[in-house]
Amino acid sequence: MARKEKSEYIIQAVSHALDLLEQFQGEDDELGVTELSKRLKLHKNNVFRLLATLESRGYVEQNRATENYRLGLKSLELGQTFIKQMGLLRQAQPVLEKMVEECNETSYISIFKDGFIVYLEIEETTMTVRVVPRIGIRLPAYCTAAGKVHLAFLREEELDKLYAKTKLLSFTSNTLSDLNALKTELEEIRKNGFAIDNEEYDIGVRCVAAPIRDYTRRVVGAVSLSGPSMRFTDERMEKELVPIVVREGKDLSTRLGYPTDKEA
Which terminus of the chain, N or C, has fewer Cβ atoms within 10 Å? Predict the structure, then answer.
């Protein structure tokens, strides 16, 4: 008996659901039933049923103010799982080692989770005086370089929602505890492509971070260098450390499939 082609086993409803999810890959963060119906060439009732199913499982969510739909947290969780399983940490290890060899300061990879930065991988400096965040530790995003890299590429409504009920505590005199001041700095970060923590969480500690993007062009992590402020002088940051971090952020992004012909 002849073997069937895999295409003969395709379930049309599942295919339509995946087609629907893929509509959110472009610049449109939110889409309505009418627009999705036009794009998919499906009746509105069918689109609504697909959305209801995906919403019940957390893969899409509805903006109650606009009644449009956007990707849900379950989609993010799957993406993060893919990153862990298929490459971010595996690709990052040689990059972190290279950074330490080049400047002998602690380098690390982190991801964004629920308003916090979580450190996933660290390569330590050989210097006696060092800064070494523990793997798995969570730090507030708004007062860390890696965290601000992630916040800079959130939509403004996402940022407002994140800090609607969360007070920006001052850990040091340099902490940006005013949301408008933070937004101003985040705009500069988007423009420059890197973020700096100027003793904003710990006195005597400075950090620099750059975004890591994947093939979907989303920021999926941050690569950073941290150390004591006595070594992280303004001049050294500008001439040596920032260029290293920005370069390696772009390298890791390329390794994860970020198009090299697009601006990072």
Answer: N
What CA–CA distance (Å, rounded) separates 101 from 98?
5
Q: Backbone dihedral region of 168: left (phi > 0), alpha (psi from -120 to 50 degrees) or beta?
A: beta
**Are the C-beta atoms of 60 and 54 separated by less than 8 Å?**
yes
CB 218 within 8 A of CB 158: no
Q: Report the C-alpha gap between 117 and 209 in whole angstroms.
A: 12
Structure confidence at residue 260 (pLDDT): 66
Alpha helices in the chain (DSSP H): 12-22, 33-40, 44-56, 73-86, 88-103, 145-151, 156-162, 179-192, 234-236, 242-255
Reported as type and span, the H/E element at residue 201 is: none
Give the position of tokens 């798995």.
136
Query: For the chain, which residues make up each domain, given as ranges?
Result: 6-71, 77-255
pLDDT at 223 over 70: yes
Residues 115-138: tens digit of each pLDDT: 899 888 888 888 887 777 667 778
Nearest CA to 118 out of 92, 141, 91, 85 is that of 141
What is this structure's pTM? 0.65
Alpha-carbon distances, residue 106 vs 110, 229, 246 (angstroms): 13, 13, 15
Q: Classify domain 77-255 by CATH number.
A: 3.30.450.40
Q: Are 26 and 43 in contact (CB under 8 A)?
A: no
Kindly state the average pLDDT of the residues 166-191.
Answer: 92
Q: DSSP character for 72?
A: -
Residues forming beta bridges with residue 226, ordered by sequence position: 106, 207
What is residue 110's three-state secondary structure? strand
- Top CATH class of 6-71 equals mainly alpha
Query: Distance between CA atoms of 217 and 29, rounded to whole angstroms?
Result: 13
